[in-house]
Amino acid sequence: MAETSTDCDTETFRENNKVVKNILFIMCDQLRWDAMSCSGHPSLETPHIDALADRGVRFNRAFVQGAVCGSSRMSFYTGRYVQTHGARWNQVPLAINQVTMGDHLRKLGVRTALVGKTHMRADLEGMARLGLGEGSDEEFFLRECGFEVVERDDGLHPETRGSSELAYNQFLWEKGFTGKNPWHSAANSVLDENGNTISGWLLRAAPYASKVPESVSETAYMTDRAIDFIQSAGEERWCLHLSFIKPHWPYVAPAPYNDIYRDAEIPPPNRSSEELADQHPVLHAMRHSRIGRAMSRPDARRLVIPTYLGLVKQIDTNLGRLFGKLKELGREKDTMIVFTSDHGDYLGDHWMGEKDWLNEEIVRVPMIIVDPRNAADKTRGTVTNKLVEAIDLLPTFVESLGGASKEPEQWLEGESLIPILHHDASTKRSSVISEADWGFLEMTKYLSGVQVPRAARATMIRNDRYKYILSEVGSNLLYDLDEDPNELCDRGDDLSMRTIRNDLHEELFEWFRHRRHDSTNNDLFMQMTSAPGSAARQGIPIGYWDEQELEAGLQGKLY
Amino acid sequence: MAETSTDCDTETFRENNKVVKNILFIMCDQLRWDAMSCSGHPSLETPHIDALADRGVRFNRAFVQGAVCGSSRMSFYTGRYVQTHGARWNQVPLAINQVTMGDHLRKLGVRTALVGKTHMRADLEGMARLGLGEGSDEEFFLRECGFEVVERDDGLHPETRGSSELAYNQFLWEKGFTGKNPWHSAANSVLDENGNTISGWLLRAAPYASKVPESVSETAYMTDRAIDFIQSAGEERWCLHLSFIKPHWPYVAPAPYNDIYRDAEIPPPNRSSEELADQHPVLHAMRHSRIGRAMSRPDARRLVIPTYLGLVKQIDTNLGRLFGKLKELGREKDTMIVFTSDHGDYLGDHWMGEKDWLNEEIVRVPMIIVDPRNAADKTRGTVTNKLVEAIDLLPTFVESLGGASKEPEQWLEGESLIPILHHDASTKRSSVISEADWGFLEMTKYLSGVQVPRAARATMIRNDRYKYILSEVGSNLLYDLDEDPNELCDRGDDLSMRTIRNDLHEELFEWFRHRRHDSTNNDLFMQMTSAPGSAARQGIPIGYWDEQELEAGLQGKLY
């Protein structure tokens, strides 16, 4: 079984190079890979995130497995592709047999705690079928995606969830804000120039400041809870998942962040008129749906993007606070820090808004890892273009915290990133996969030919040069990212690229065949079963002619 | 939800054509599709099975989903393909989230009982993870594949299992047989002409009679338990799974069945010298493994097949007893009878023994259904060549017992056979799928190039004319069953058939993509989520510009 280190003082952790003591696993929601200064944004400044990149490795080509919060996050939390864990979109429950980050890390003696969002829906039907009543640890973890809940905030409907999610509303009430759900009516609403309240859900609210001051905003509050946790945990080992809702909608920032980038340079939209005329049924429906139309309006980007950037800036500032506290506590030396996002935001690129499709704007995410161990010194400050996936984080965590990276091979589908972090070594991965299930979107109703909602999906495979999208509705798509890094020209019907498409199609087929659905099986068991003489020794001597043969078989001499 | 009929008297069941009262679900183990007189065997006589065919529909092209007991049975019991349920071979546990026949039928108020074999291994690790302690109904059903256990007999190691499996040994002890495991030392061992005991596992034992008389043999004993159950159940509704071990190895029959077919005509072996020279790595290894070599010996078929036929004859005779009792109790009129098998037996065909590969000898099975309702009168005595699968039985049962056939669509992957039984109607199915995982076999050790045991598998798609086998090791195979019904000529490298192979390859890819791994999801939920205005009404009004748009959205007028 996994090695559990009990030798936990900080210097040992740093110097023995074997394990890290803690992991601070930070996730933003809907943060694009290019919305950081270290990844080249022309006006946004994120010095604290950039400082992480200076101290660690920035993965410039990191991809999430799902094109929407729920499916993407369940891949982060289970280390498995969407096709394997099955929670294909928001609100699709995570089946009770799925093993989570908490299951893997608690075995190593590590508290696995949550501050913020998981977007996980519990499989209540599955729990009821097994008679799992309330009150046990197991039942709690099944409800909370395997995490010990310090603070849960899915950023939606806090009033309809359990008490664990009421805390931020309670905090706002204590600060004098009123109403049934001040998460919405105060923190995510604004006052216009006439003093009228506008719901932050409406795009026209974006330029105004939130009704709450920065110090009581959701981002600041969650950062405070993370600091509280780290302080109170003392010398216990932990993996803390600090999971911000922002810069996800509602696009509402507290002062001064609503205004900082109001007049800043924002890159021109990545879109072409040819795209708008494209008749691919799925892309056409997305671009002409309400969200696509809204974010394609000439004024939309100017309205929304400065607020979006302000929200990122606010996260960066709060991370500065958090990292300062980590240093003050001496935890910087023994804590691995991971910074990433669950997916991006079209923000009008490709004439789309939101997410749910497979362009780089959505499935390519920020990913920075700071490994405090000496073994990682030689890669500090480097940027790698190696293709990595969200599911690579959990095996990285298991290995870093002292587990055997390959032990739970029937569960984890990713690859530990330690070889890259320690040696800039190459990995087995030559392509990445993402999945998009758009059949949950309202546009589906207006798209003919979708007989079976669950077939309204697409699967992307992307290697160093090409991105191929197998679309269950409409034609398949291909982009040559060397020639067309902005994905403006679909080569799905280019005869000269037929072999490339066929090869990627076949690679995807192979990927589908080898998902680890057979989670009760594993290679070790198969090797034991197929060992010469194994069946005979278990009392199932099939196909032996006589006693002499059986004796030879029992000794493994006859197969 | 499903309709539950409380109106259970026999005449109502027969005449209202809505539901059947009970289902007698009989399964043999390792019974080939052609080992019945009604399917054309030249010497075997199975009058009681033939009588079922006269009263119902015989499915002449019925296929199992797995090429070995465990995986095939889990497909029967879950209504899902092997790729979906994940229990890919014997002893691979059925994951706790898999919903079984018992789950589906108990909801309809139907006792779902077992007499005999399931070959199911419980997912003890999964149960422990959820803290499922002993003693609850849920825990019992998880351990017993969803069945109420009247008598469990997996035909192996009864001495090492729980008390539920000791019953047959107990019975043998009471009859005066001794030893730790009289299942083996008495019922499945023989006395040779010199009075020496030979273990029935050894092929050389096949011609001798079992040490126990027929009346206390395993087949007779299980038939008795089924009769006991039906008598004691009275007017309760039930689905009884009577699951014989035979004619599975050990090839031991009690007198006189060991001798009835000793000199009978047995069909010549279905094999060619070209096959023996075939260098396909998997087929070569199978043919040259111990079991392949044993069953290829000139004397093997003459030794084993008469015993195999005798075991089938014995089952037929016992079924005659059972059907007589059913008639006597009046249950014949309100009970659907299903007769099938979990897979076949090579018996030396293709120079192979046992199973674990995808020829018709293995994956094509007997399937006869007698539907007692008037609605089925016009198909009685017919034989259909429509392609059907083992997973079609569970939706047939659900519908026949009064459930909505489509209700649990996220669970069931088959298609109800009622349209065929009542109208000889066509179905959606144009091909069938079977999967073989040979990486558990001892031959694997001697086969180079198998780096990952779990990749040692193959998937078959078969339509009316062709059978295509995608083999993860070695080349893919193709048979033209019109020109080569005996599958003696692999056309996998025939250039003229490239388009046919490509089309079947692509059809398999589509099949892999659409397995129902996302069992917590369903089309109804997707339709609700994608309804116009649905997200806004749930408090997530994404992409609305202003109050006017939101109002239109809430009313479903804007998408």
SSE topology sketch:
2 copies of one chain form a homodimer.
Chain A: H1 10-16, E1 22-28, H2 47-55, E2 57-59, E3 62-63, H3 69-78, H4 82-85, H5 101-106, E4 111-116, H6 124-129, H7 137-143, E5 148-152, H8 167-174, H9 182-187, E6 189-191, E7 197-199, H10 218-233, E8 238-243, H11 273-277, H12 281-288, H13 290-296, H14 300-328, E9 335-341, H15 360-363, E10 364-365, E11 367-370, E12 382-384, E13 388-389, H16 393-400, H17 418-423, E14 431-437, E15 457-463, E16 466-471, E17 477-480, H18 498-513, H19 523-529, H20 534-537, H21 547-554
Parallel strand pairs in A: 1-8, 1-9, 2-12, 3-13, 4-5, 4-8
Antiparallel strand pairs in A: 2-11, 3-10, 6-7, 9-11, 14-15, 15-16, 16-17
Helix pairs in contact in A: 10-14
How would you characterize this protein structure?
The structure is a homodimer of 559-residue chains. The first copy, chain A, contains 21 helices and 17 strands. With 559 residues, chain A is an alpha/beta fold. Chain A folds into 2 domains: 17-431, 3-Layer(aba) Sandwich (Alkaline Phosphatase, subunit A); 533-559, no CATH class. In chain A, strands 5-4-8-1-9-11-2-12 form an 8-stranded mixed beta sheet. A 4-stranded antiparallel beta sheet of chain A has the order 14-15-16-17, covered by helices on one side. In chain A, strands 10-3-13 form a 3-stranded mixed beta sheet. The longest helix of chain A is centred in the middle third of the chain and has 29 residues, at 300-328. Chain A starts with 9 loop residues before the first helix and ends in a 5-residue tail after the last helix. In chain A, 55% of the residues are buried. Residues 1-7 of chain A have low confidence and may be disordered. Chains A and B meet through helix 6, helix 7, helix 13, helix 18 and helix 19 of A and helix 6, helix 7, helix 13, helix 18 and helix 19 of B.
